[in-house]
Design goal:
Helix content of chain A: 25-40%
Mean pLDDT of chain A: 93
Helix content of chain B: 40-55%
CATH superfamily of chain A: Collagenase (Catalytic Domain)
CATH class of chain A: Alpha Beta
Number of strands of chain B: 16
CATH topology of chain A: Collagenase (Catalytic Domain)
Number of domains of chain A: 1
Strand content of chain B: 5-15%
Structural class of chain B: alpha/beta
Shape of chain B: elongated
Radius of gyration of chain A: 15 Å
Order of helices and strands of chain A: EHEEHEEEEEHHH
CATH class of the largest domain in chain B: Alpha Beta
Oligomer: heterodimer
Strand order of the largest sheet of chain B: 2-1-3-4-5
Low-confidence stretches of chain B: none
Chain lengths: 177, 452
């Protein structure tokens, strides 16, 4: 897990143990990367998620199965106005932005535990994609697609039974290789 | 269901292409990308994509609109979404005019794209399901599936297949259970109207006024209870086929209305003043002798000649006994899995019983008999004993014919008693009597029998 730019400790500290519990894998926190000025798009006043993910891949230490970046910057891809996160489907890198997971973004006073819960859900979601999981029709599953904060809050910070099964299969397949 | 559908993203900007493709893949779709209009066309020739995302501005001589038009020539059903960075009313209008499903301005809200794609896929799934069901239905009702080795029957089926392609009205005659509707559906399915609706109406099942509004529809306020406008069967069957079963039972007034539709191909809804034109092929069926009804003044001769352009007369099963073994084996094969039985065949002796029986209810009665035998069968082959109930039907030993009764009176009493035994349930009663529902309705009406 790598922070990209400034992110308060409370977020990665809450995310790491839950990832270990859900995926059954050791999570290590690396030194934070610098603020992603290289990815800044002045016209959109947002940061290109593709550029940040390239840097994350370069920064990944050998032996790390997956790399999860957590940034406080508001990220985008050209087609979409914003993203909560992005991942390589069946790949190695995932990125979560907490910019729009904060209530302050919508003019509501912030609550740390809410932010932590949402960051956990989106981290599970994006890492789930790296294990080949696609969006789940069950609105309570961490793999359901969220395009607004309400949908993030509706889902649970766990995978549904079906997605869990797929995850186990994917991990078994990877272990055999 | 998602993975069946493929999407193509077309944009000269690689980041744009790849990032949208990656985002859609997370949703479970198979997504390809193309970097130009030409590239897109090449891919469209090889793969049938359900949705195309096409950028409006692309260099290389082919912009988004041109790409869309070329793709639409290859795949008219494809849904194309035009993407642009700058919204102008003119390009939006052009895109929609040329058949774009949607026109979106980037960057776009993720929720919007997700809803749009889901909406398109939902429609595609329904279309595909509809297509599969239609195919299944057509297979179920085609001439090849009408089972017979009887020479007369084969000649009739050839005639039916021959007339299927024409527009002429067809009159099918035959006793109850001889398969009149089956032939009507096969005619429809072999005609160029196969993609359009086949609408069946049982004329005997409804009272005159109900039948009129059923056939022609009604306007709001046409009568008490007509709270909304309703389309009739003729409108629903537009460009397709309407099957009028038990046509011999309709009233003189309706005969006149029907004659008008056949002559002018137009009619008025009940309570309506606007003439409605339809293109409907009419296939009618009857189990009564219409010629005789005309002679008795019960049926209009002009309507009879209009209907009787092509006449198909289906023989009763007792006149094509050689088909009984074929049909019996067909029903075993069809019904056995439906009933969860493992019956494969039928003993020669049992077939003998079936061959000797008279089948007043024709093929339908035979199907019911096989079903009943299957339900009680204990082995993998149907035995003589499994059809013992037929012997009772054929030779009612302990029954004495009542004296001094007309046949009509006997029939009336039998129907009344059977209805009472089945608590007024017409479907059950018809099944027990070995006739179809519309025939039973007609008889109930003719003898004025109370249903309860």
């Amino acid at each position: 897990m790598i922070r990209v730019g400034a992110v308060e400790d409370a977020v990665p500290d809450a995310v790491a143990p839950r990832l270990e519990a859900e995926f059954g894998l050791e999570v290590r926190q690396m030194a934070a990367l610098s603020d992603p000025a290289y990815a800044f798009d002045a016209r959109r006043a947002q940061y290109s998620s593709v550029e940040i993910m390239k840097r994350l891949l370069d920064a990944a230490p050998p032996g790390a199965g997956r790399v999860l970046g957590i940034t406080g910057r508001d990220i985008f891809i050209p087609m979409l106005s914003f993203l909560f996160g992005q991942a390589q489907l069946g790949g190695r890198v995932a990125l979560v932005s907490v910019a729009r997971l904060r209530q302050e973004f919508y003019g509501i006073p912030g609550m740390t535990h809410r932010l932590q819960e949402r960051a956990i859900k989106e981290s599970l979601h994006e890492l789930g994609h790296t294990f080949g999981l696609t969006h789940c029709p069950d609105a309570r599953c961490a793999m359901s697609l969220s395009t607004n904060l309400q949908q993030v809050d509706t889902k649970d910070a766990v995978f549904c039974a079906a997605c869990r099964g797929r995850l186990e299969n994917s991990r078994l397949g990877a272990a055999e290789q | 269901m998602k993975t069946h559908w493929q999407i193509l993203v077309v944009d000269d900007e690689e980041v744009m292409c790849e990032s949208l493709a990656a985002w859609l893949r997370e949703d479970g779709y198979l997504v390809d990308t193309a970097s130009s209009g030409r590239d897109a066309l090449e891919k469209a020739r090889a793969t049938d994509y359900a949705i195309y995302f096409v950028d409006l501005k692309m260099p290389g001589g082919m912009d988004g609109i041109e790409t869309m038009m070329a793709v639409r020539q290859l795949h008219p059903e494809a849904s194309i979404i035009i993407i642009t960075a700058y919204a102008t009313v003119d390009t939006a209008i052009t895109a929609m005019k040329e058949g774009a499903m949607e026109y979106i301005v980037k960057p776009c809200n993720p929720e919007e794209i997700s809803l749009l794609v889901n909406r398109i896929i939902k429609v595609k799934n329904l279309q595909r399901e509809n297509q599969i069901l239609r195919k299944k239905l057509a297979r179920q009702y085609c001439f090849q599936d009408i089972i017979s080795k009887n020479a007369r029957m084969r000649a009739i089926l050839e005639l039916a297949e021959d007339v299927a392609g024409r527009r002429s009205t067809v009159l099918i005659r035959g006793e109850s259970g001889t398969g009149k509707e089956l032939v009507a559906r096969a005619i429809h399915n072999s005609s160029d109207r196969v993609a359009q609706p086949f609408v069946a109406v049982s004329c005997a099942a409804l009272a005159e006024s109900l039948l009129e509004s059923e056939l022609f529809g009604y306007e709001k306020g046409a009568f008490t209870g007509a709270t909304t406008q309703k389309k009739g069967k003729f409108e629903l069957a537009d460009r397709g086929t309407i099957f009028l079963d038990e046509i011999g039972d309709i009233s003189m007034k309706l005969q006149l209305d029907l004659l008008r539709v056949l002559q002018e191909r137009s009619f008025y809804r009940v309570g309506g003043s606007q003439e409605i034109s339809v293109d409907v092929r009419v296939v009618a069926a009857t189990n009564v002798d219409l010629q005789q009804a005309v002679e008795q003044g019960k049926f209009r001769d002009d309507l009879f000649y209009r209907l009787n352009v092509i006449e198909i007369k289906l023989p009763p099963l007792r006149e094509r006994r050689e088909d009984v073994p074929l049909l019996a084996r067909h029903f075993i094969e069809k019904l056995s899995p439906e009933l969860g039985k493992e019956v494969q065949d039928i003993r020669e002796g049992a077939l003998r019983i079936l061959m000797d029986y008279d089948w007043p209810g024709n093929v339908r009665e035979l199907e019911n008999a096989v079903e009943r035998a299957l339900v009680t069968a204990r082995s993998e082959i149907l035995e003589e004993d499994d059809f013992a109930f037929l012997a009772a039907r054929a030779r009612p030993f302990n029954w004495q014919a009542p004296a001094n009764l007309t046949l009509d009176e006997v029939e009336r009493q039998v129907i009344t008693a059977t209805l009472a035994r089945n608590s007024g349930n017409v479907k059950e009663t018809a099944s027990v009597l070995g006739i179809d529902r519309s025939t039973l309705y007609e008889k109930i009406r003719r003898y004025d029998i109370a249903r309860e």
